[in-house]
Design brief:
Elements (H helix, E strand, L loop, with lengths): L21 H4 L9 H8 L22 E4 L4 E6 L9 H15 L5 E6 L7 H9 L1 H9 L1 H11 L5
Parallel strand pairs: 2-3
Antiparallel strand pairs: 1-2
C-alpha cells in the first residue's frame, strides 16, 4: 500500500444514534426524508485511507446536507481532511453511490466538495456531477470494489 497522505488525522466524536418517533416507524404515515436521515445513511462510510468513518474524520456533517423531499433533491457538501486529498473523488463517489442505492429513484443526488477546502474542487465537482463519468467509474470493477469496501460495514 502507498504512503498515507494524512498520516495523523484529527478524529471527531460521533453523534449519537437518532431516536425514532412512533410516526417515523409507522409505515402507513408519509415521513419526509430529512437531513438527519441522509446523514445517518452516509456517516458510517469508511474512509479509503484510514480505519475510520467519514463522520469520525468530520468529512461529512449534518449541517452540510440539504434535502428537499417535495422537489426530490439531496445536496451534500463534504470536506476532505487535507486540501490535496487524492481520495476526494473516491469519497464523493462513495457518498453518491450509497445514496443512489438507498434512496427512492425519484431523488436527484448532488455531491460536492465544501467550497474552499480542496485544491482541485472544481475538477472533482465536475466529475461527480457528470452522470456518464460516474456510470463509467462504476463499470470499472477495481474502482467498484474500492467503493464497496468504503460502503461495507466494519467488522467489530
Amino acid at each position: 500500500m502507498s504512503e498515507l497522505e494524512n498520516t495523523n488525522p484529527v478524529i471527531y466524536q460521533r453523534s449519537g444514534a437518532r431516536l425514532l418517533t412512533a410516526t417515523e416507524e409507522d409505515e402507513d404515515i408519509h415521513d419526509p426524508i430529512d437531513d438527519r436521515e441522509i446523514f445517518d445513511l452516509i456517516r458510517n462510510i469508511n474512509d479509503p485511507e484510514h480505519p475510520l468513518s467519514l463522520e469520525e474524520l468530520n468529512v461529512v456533517e449534518q449541517v452540510r446536507i440539504k434535502v428537499d423531499d417535495v422537489e426530490s433533491t439531496v445536496d451534500i457538501q463534504f470536506t476532505p481532511t487535507i486540501p490535496h486529498c487524492s481520495m476526494a473523488t473516491l469519497i464523493g463517489l462513495s457518498i453518491k453511490v450509497k445514496l443512489l442505492r438507498s434512496l427512492p429513484d425519484r431523488f436527484k443526488v448532488d455531491v460536492q466538495i465544501t467550497p474552499g477546502t480542496h485544491a482541485s474542487e472544481d475538477a472533482v465537482n465536475k466529475q461527480l456531477a457528470d452522470k456518464e463519468r460516474v456510470a463509467a467509474a462504476l463499470e470499472n470493477s477495481q474502482l467498484l470494489e474500492v467503493v464497496n469496501q468504503c460502503l461495507s460495514a466494519k467488522s467489530a
